[in-house]
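The data layer described in this paper is built around a simple, fixed record for each protein. Such a record has a labelled line for the sequence and another for the backbone structure tokens. For reference, a complete record is included directly beneath this paragraph.
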Amino acid sequence: MKISKHRVAILDYTLTGEDGQVIDESHDGSFSYLHGAGNIIPGLEKALDGRKSGESLRVVIEAADAYGERDPARIQRVPRDRFPPAADLQAGMRFQAQSQEGHPQVVMLTAIEGPDIIVDANHPLAGRRLHFDVTILSVRSAKKEEITHRHVHGPGGHHH
């Protein structure tokens, strides 16, 4: 069976950056997704379309087809008093914040400059070319409930 819309693919993968450093990996069939539902980065979904169980591939995904380019407008200066007074703030910390549209988003504290905290709402992999080594372990038709919910459900279904 080939990977196509409304099919569930189970994969093993290793994700590396330009320097060859492993960023993420999934082995033993622990990663699955519903094809065509936008659950993985667009470039990888496109590369997997039409592939079948047992195939292995190496694919390079440009930033625009992964997490996008870095957007300087997503880096903001926030007054220190917006954070809990007792918080021991340090560069590299991540916080859940609210976007200007009112949606939850994760931001990373990148610097402390006097009374201001510099936060970056770009995805940590934005602006990066990504290298995937993928093995397709199996492909199956999605269940009606998975198509309706737009994601894969584990054994025994899924309860919302």
Observations:
- The CA atoms of residues 68 and 106 lie 16 Å apart.
